[in-house]
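Entry type: protein chain
Record version: 2
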Amino acid sequence: MPKRISIIGLGLIGGSIALDLKKSGFASEITGVDKSGLHEQQAVELGIADKIQPLEEALQNADLVILATPVDVSLELLPYILNLLPPGVVVTDVGSTKSSLIQKVKDHPNRKSYVPSHPMAGTEYSGPAAAFHGLFKDRVAIICNPEESFPEAVSLVSELYSHLGSRLILMNSESHDEHVGYVSHLSHVISYALAVAVLEKEKDDAAIFDLAAGGFASTVRLAKSSVNMWLPIFEQNAKYILPIIDIYLDKLNQFKSYLEKGETEKLSDFIKEANRIKSKLEKE
């Protein structure tokens, strides 16, 4: 039976969820909430939300609430939402960090109505205009600590991701934060650092961007991602991001050393070892 869904945060993720849930028939009605009046207006114009309501009203008129705000905002909003959540209503979030949020509400009376989740999808763009159909198709979605939520709540959120075309994985929150720190958060760190390095060099060489090809564009693409979204992710997941940055810097220094010393065989072996990532990714 179609559900009434309220989405808090009408950007790329929240908007794309809305589009696909309406298309699949899972949602009978989408109510939107956003701190930006412009985003709310755009969401209605783009067919993302059927109507806009204040947060308190949106909670009362929903079967499922999806919190799609930056992780620092979610940390403040989730306890407030659980305070007002009507009986039988389920809430999930879609943030890239989980342990801090789960810890924040671990003793809340309505904790079991909350299902922590994370769809592993996105682009470097933000806002309602960035939303599109099919963002989550064939991508992994993670539900964390399912044993801490009502079984029927987990079932509803699982159904949501099924309608989005995602492949579901169950995971504890610490493992989630560690693994996404490696495969997602570090990629953004590297992209930001590369962008800053090239921009600094560009001061001396104005032609540098004229020579930029596809390899540079794809590597630095993530550096276009919003500071409002990614700064709180880095801060909340520093526990796992900092160690993998250390490993990355060690490998970068190895590469530099082999190149400086003309150690061709070692540099060749390094590149061949890196090539093994192809077989890992092609299993996806």
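Comment: The mean pLDDT is 93.
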